[in-house]
Amino acid sequence: MRKIIFILFLVCVSVCFSDVIAQIDVTTTGSQEESYVLMEKVIEDGETIYLKTLRTVYVYPPLVFKNKRQERFYWRTVRDVKKALPYARLASMEINKLNKELFLLPNDVARKKHISQFQKRIFREYEKPLRKLTINQGKMLVKLIDREHDMNTFDLIKAYKGSMPAVFWNTIARFFGSDLKAEYDATDKDRIVERVVTLVDAGQL
Predict the structure, then answer these.
(1) Better-scored residue on pLDDT, 178 or 85
(2) What is the pLDDT of residue 15?
(3) What DSSP designation does 190 have?
(4) Mean pLDDT, the chain, whole residue set
(5) What is the DSSP string of 68-126?
(6) Which residues are registered as beta bridge partners of 30?
(7) Which secondary-structure segment (H or E) carries 29?
(8) Average pLDDT of 103-127?
(9) What is the dihedral of CA 117, 118, 119, 120, to 10 degrees?
């Protein structure tokens, strides 16, 4: 399954202010421990005002678990999101980069050659860490790639490798309880995952 997870990743892998402010510059404040915080300041009517943008704090209704099993499932989801999310975002970045590069190539032959080279590079760079993912983390990775790229894994494979490979890998994935055609649903079936991602991004989890 870890090999399948890796291959799935392989084929997928792809502060402003208003005009009323008169002057803006950056001031550095620090402590004796050489710890610095960059702060912006504005000068209005001769008064210097220091500005610090605070991180958004998200507030959700408290979760109520019916039993210990539900609670363990939630914290396992947190663990899997934290493990898979960086790779999902990396995949989205690589896919976007690949798309831009393919757009500049003159024909299908050149594009296929470039995709092949792209796959070899991704294999070299990410094989070892991706093989360490568990089955659940692999499933989470597939789900989060859909979230980040707004395209499910089946469609990504189909776009880059064709219909037959997409059908083949989806058939294999089904043996492990995964469906590459499944769409990420932030408001319903994946709402807990969405909540966890939001809180992880905000540094609240």
Answers:
(1) 85
(2) 30
(3) T
(4) 76
(5) HHHHHHHHHHHHHHHHHHHHHHHHHHHHHHHHHHHHTSSSHHHHHHHHHHHHHHHHHHH
(6) 36
(7) strand 24-30
(8) 83
(9) 50
**Cα dihedral 84/89/90/93 (nearest 10):** 160
Q: Which two tokens stand for residue 65?
A: 């678990």
Q: What is the mean pLDDT of residues 125-154?
A: 82
The single-letter code of the amino acid at 3 is K
Q: Under a CB-based contact definition with an 8 Å cutoff, are residues 78 and 196 in contact?
A: yes
Residue with tokens 């989205």: 92
**Main-chain phi, psi angles of 98, to 5 degrees:** -60, -45
Alpha-carbon dihedral angle through residues 111, 97, 122, 136, given to the nearest 10 degrees: -120
Tokens of 148: 């980040």
pLDDT for residue 68: 92
pTM: 0.67
- pLDDT of 104 reads 87
Q: Which residues contact 32 (CB under 8 A, 6 or more apart)?
A: none
55 with 66: CB under 8 angstroms? no
